[in-house]
């Protein structure tokens, strides 16, 4: 067979002036139509519109809908798909799996395999020829019915190319069909092939036949020869999914589109003029069928939107003017305009990601609107039309705008047994979960199941959560504590609980913090180690200190405590431990010494990270290997065994571990490639693996490579990505997962980024604020009339790459080391924040 290629007509997209139409919507809420999903429509010789729906065959005479169903016909009318009207005004209607229905205006006849010679009840398409023969496209061949005899043409008894037919059409006595990409015909008794690339026959008008291709376009045949074609991307065609095709009295081609690829709508393709109703509920987003009576009257069937009548408007509707885009955030934009005179009934804003009219409509009766469901970091185009009731104005182009990348949400997190602390990227402090001893720092008790902001400060840099008390550091080096304080664990020189963050002493050189049951421990910027609270604090016996007290004179770089056992890494990378050792968690190689009262060196290896929790200890050496020791009768250490381990023992053999954290009975770790791993208890799905199966050794969780923190508490976990998105899994009886009321989720669920007035009070962009030059090569200048506190630069993955303090009305950022590309600048001035996009050359 000679292969027919698409002949691409060069069609220049022009700014066509569309005619002014009115739109009338008929749906189940405002009319007697049977359903809002219309699969096919045909107009008979008397002007009646016939509709194929799931529930009835509907007839509309211009005033009233008459719905034919089982109740008033006795015929099983349902799941109707295609309609054909013959020269005797009989309606032939195909069904999904229930054969063929005929209505002659008086009598209903139902043809099925159990009562007629029809070979199948599944019909893909139906048409009639000039002799009123009915032709069916089926999965068993081409079927003809002359009113008496059923004839099936298949590969075993004819020259047809295949048995599965997707569509059928007729011109005079010649029948055309599509079969697995082939466009074929039956003339008399002879089958032949006309062409290929054929998906379905859309319309036959005189000598012209329009055939939809498998790609985004169509082929036009004139006298069975290809005379024209068009493709999406190479013409003004709106979309790649057809909902219908027809021609008007001037032979102009009309195409209805479904919103499957980009934007639904209706188009006079010959004139390249697109039509989108500015009437609420008259959407062409999901068109299913089209019948052009003339260019003055067009019927459009839709999915979910009912029937739309499109008629030449009887009045004039003037266009709005002075279209303006106002405030833009990462997910919203506001628009305003000047109303025409006379004022219309309403307006429609159309938003699209491409510069072609179409997309999603939004309706308003005022001359402004704010749209809140936009995507971050996206390009948008918008148009506006007035709705005057009996007509609508032309669409007015509003232009282009871009939504910025939102700043990262969370920057740091810490988990107690049943509450979580978090710092957002803007430096604000948040908490949620159990709150019976003021551990959330809100000034009141009562559990919180979503993130709640603590105070108004925006300079928090570190948090640590224990079971019933919390610590945090500010950027100025001050230390703050709140919650239960019966053993002095807050360090505020009393045993009175603190309802809100309370400063610990007056020192401004705190660097790192850790908390455990009834005690706290911290490192200052000079490396000295300080402890307070009650327990084995490292001084040779049991002690209670109400204020931070220095442990020896050695200097440290990392520390972690469970309250019972404390692990610390000195500045020379050696590991030291003390506390209860009945399960081997100190790591000295035996349990004969039940309590180790003072810091004791564990081996001579070089370490970079430690974590202590509930009798289990973990550490990562400077060579990237992962080690564990201590309590293991439930297999929590990740070795695949259940015996306690008395000294550091390597987990697996890989040497690319970056961070290890813990929950109650389970461990989590992140490798240097950003992958997330977990092991141990998983009774409530806290590992986020989608099940509650115990993991005896580390298993990878998901496929992402952008994790930065992973920890947990009592049967729940919190997982943080480098872009600031936080996820959780497990059990949440006190709200510790931060996703609302008591939840049980064995799969990762994202924690919604909390918002507040301080965060959304963005600076207005005006001539008084300058960020220049943009694009920038080396030095980025920032100036504003108010004092700028800090400025940060993020890449498009949400990772902070530069952060500086300015504390002045203007400042400079050295961006010379950044790779070329697009970045987001976040500027903080007092309590206000603004994000701006820059380009680094």
Q: What can you see in these coordinates?
A:
- The protein is 1% helix and 51% strand.
- The chain has 2 helices and 66 strands.
- A 7-stranded antiparallel sheet has the order 14-15-16-17-18-19-20, with no helix packed on it. Strands 43-44-45-46-47-48-49 form a 7-stranded antiparallel sheet, with no helix packed on it.
Strand content: over 45%
Helix content class:
under 10%
Instruction: Give the mean pLDDT.
Output: 90
Distance between the termini: 55 Å
- What is the tally of helical segments? 2
Shape summary: elongated
Structural category: mainly beta
Major sheet: order of its strands? 14-15-16-17-18-19-20
Could you give the count of β-strands?
Answer: 66
Report low-confidence residues grouped into runs of 5 or more: 1-16, 757-768
Rounded to an integer in angstroms, the radius of gyration calculated over CA atoms is 36 Å
Q: What can be said about the biggest beta sheet?
A: 7 strands, antiparallel
Summarize the SSE layout with pairings.
Layout: E1 21-26, E2 40-43, E3 49-52, E4 57-60, E5 65-68, H1 70-73, E6 80-85, E7 91-95, E8 100-103, E9 108-111, E10 123-128, E11 134-138, E12 141-145, E13 150-153, E14 167-171, E15 174-179, E16 181-187, E17 190-205, E18 208-213, E19 217-222, E20 225-231, E21 242-247, E22 253-257, E23 265-268, E24 273-275, E25 287-294, E26 297-302, E27 307-312, E28 321-328, E29 333-338, E30 346-352, E31 360-364, E32 368-371, E33 379-387, E34 396-402, E35 410-415, E36 419-424, E37 429-433, E38 448-453, E39 460-465, E40 469-474, E41 479-483, E42 498-503, E43 510-516, E44 519-524, E45 528-536, E46 542-561, E47 565-570, E48 575-580, E49 595-601, E50 607-613, E51 616-621, E52 626-630, E53 645-650, E54 657-662, E55 666-671, E56 676-680, E57 695-700, E58 707-712, E59 716-721, E60 726-731, E61 744-751, H2 757-760, E62 770-772, E63 779-794, E64 800-814, E65 821-829, E66 832-840
Antiparallel strand pairs: 1-27, 2-3, 3-4, 4-5, 6-7, 7-8, 8-9, 10-11, 11-12, 12-13, 14-15, 15-16, 16-17, 17-18, 18-19, 19-20, 21-22, 22-23, 23-24, 25-26, 26-27, 28-29, 29-32, 30-31, 30-33, 33-34, 35-36, 36-37, 37-38, 39-40, 40-41, 41-42, 43-44, 44-45, 45-46, 46-47, 47-48, 48-49, 50-51, 51-52, ...
């Amino acid at each position: 067979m000679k292969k027919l290629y698409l002949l691409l007509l060069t069609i220049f997209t022009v700014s066509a002036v569309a005619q002014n139409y009115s739109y009338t919507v008929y749906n189940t809420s405002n009319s007697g139509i049977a359903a809002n999903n219309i699969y096919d429509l045909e107009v008979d010789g008397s002007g009646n519109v016939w509709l194929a729906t799931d529930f009835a065959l509907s007839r509309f005479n211009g005033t009233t809908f008459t719905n034919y169903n089982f109740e008033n016909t006795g015929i099983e009318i349902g799941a109707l798909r295609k309609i054909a009207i013959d020269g005797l005004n009989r309606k032939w209607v195909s069904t999904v799996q229930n054969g063929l229905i005929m209505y002659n205006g008086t009598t209903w006849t139902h043809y099925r395999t159990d009562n007629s010679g029809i070979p199948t009840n599944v019909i893909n398409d139906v048409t009639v020829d000039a002799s009123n023969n009915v032709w069916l496209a089926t999965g068993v061949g081409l079927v003809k019915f002359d009113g008496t005899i059923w004839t099936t043409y298949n590969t075993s008894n004819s020259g047809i190319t295949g048995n599965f037919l997707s569509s059928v059409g007729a011109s005079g006595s010649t029948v055309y069909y599509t079969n697995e990409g082939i466009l074929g015909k039956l003339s008399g008794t002879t089958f032949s092939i006309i062409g290929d690339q054929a998906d379905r026959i859309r319309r036959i008008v005189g000598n012209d036949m329009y055939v939809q291709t498998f790609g985004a376009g169509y082929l036009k045949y004139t006298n069975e020869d290809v005379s024209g074609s068009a493709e999406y991307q190479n013409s003004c065609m709106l979309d790649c999914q057809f909902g219908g095709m027809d021609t008007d009295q001037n032979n102009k081609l009309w195409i209805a589109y479904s919103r499957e690829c980009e934007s639904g709508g209706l188009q006079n393709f010959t004139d390249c003029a697109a039509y989108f109703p500015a009437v609420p509920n008259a959407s062409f987003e999901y068109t299913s069928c089209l019948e052009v009576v003339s260019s003055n009257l067009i019927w459009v069937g839709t999915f979910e939107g009912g029937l739309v009548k499109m008629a030449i408007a009887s009045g004039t509707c003037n266009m709005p003017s002075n279209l303006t885009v106002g405030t833009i955030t990462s997910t919203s934009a506001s628009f305003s305009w000047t109303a025409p005179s006379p004022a219309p009934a309403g307006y429609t804003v159309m938003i699209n990601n491409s510069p072609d009219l179409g997309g999603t409509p939004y309706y308003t009766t005022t001359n402004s609107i704010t749209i809140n469901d936009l995507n971050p970091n996206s390009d948008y185009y918008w148009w506006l039309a007035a709705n005057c009731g009996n007509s609508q104005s032309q669409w007015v182009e509003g232009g282009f705008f871009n939504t910025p990348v939102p700043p990262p949400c969370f920057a740091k997190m810490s988990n107690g047994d049943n509450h979580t602390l978090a710092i957002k990227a803007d430096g604000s402090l948040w908490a949620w979960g159990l709150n019976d001893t003021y551990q959330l720092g809100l000034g009141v008790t009562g559990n919180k199941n979503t993130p709640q902001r603590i105070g108004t400060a925006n300079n928090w840099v570190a948090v640590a959560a224990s079971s019933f008390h919390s610590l945090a550091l500010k950027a100025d080096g001050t230390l703050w504590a709140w919650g239960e304080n019966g053993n002095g664990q807050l360090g505020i020189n009393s045993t009175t609980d603190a309802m809100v963050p309370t400063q610990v002493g007056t020192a401004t050189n705190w660097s790192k913090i850790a908390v455990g049951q009834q005690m706290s421990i911290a490192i200052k910027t000079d490396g000295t180690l300080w402890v307070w609270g009650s327990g084995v604090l490292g001084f040779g016996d049991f002690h209670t200190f109400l204020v931070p007290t220095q442990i020896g004179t050695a200097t440290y770089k990392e520390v972690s405590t469970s309250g019972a056992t404390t692990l610390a890494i000195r500045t020379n990378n050696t590991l030291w431990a003390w506390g209860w050792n009945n399960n081997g968690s100190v790591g000295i190689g035996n349990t004969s010494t039940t309590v180790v009262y003072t810091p004791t060196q564990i081996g001579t290896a070089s370490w970079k990270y430690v974590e202590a929790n509930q009798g289990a200890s973990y550490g990562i050496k400077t060579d990237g290997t992962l080690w564990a020791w201590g309590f293991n009768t439930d297999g929590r250490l990740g070795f695949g065994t259940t015996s306690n381990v008395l000294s550091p023992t390597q987990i697996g053999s890989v040497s690319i571990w970056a961070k290890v954290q813990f929950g109650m009975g389970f461990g989590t770790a992140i490798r240097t490639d950003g992958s997330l791993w977990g092991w141990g208890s998983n009774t409530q799905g806290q590992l986020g693996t989608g099940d509650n199966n115990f993991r005896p050794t580390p298993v990878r969780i998901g496929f992402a490579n952008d994790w930065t923190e992973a920890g947990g508490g009592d049967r729940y976990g919190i997982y943080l990505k480098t872009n600031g998105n936080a996820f959780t899994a497990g059990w949440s009886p006190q709200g510790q997962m931060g996703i609302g009321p008591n939840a049980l989720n064995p799969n990762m669920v994202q924690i919604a980024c909390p918002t507040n007035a301080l965060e959304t009070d963005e600076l207005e962009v005006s001539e008084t604020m300058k960020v220049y030059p943009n694009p920038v090569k080396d030095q980025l200048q920032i100036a504003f009339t108010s004092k700028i506190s800090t400025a940060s630069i993020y890449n498009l993955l949400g990772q902070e790459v530069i952060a500086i303090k300015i504390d002045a009305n203007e400042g400079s950022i050295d961006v010379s080391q950044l790779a070329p590309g697009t970045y987001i600048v976040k500027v903080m001035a007092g309590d206000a924040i603004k994000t701006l996009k820059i380009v680094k050359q």
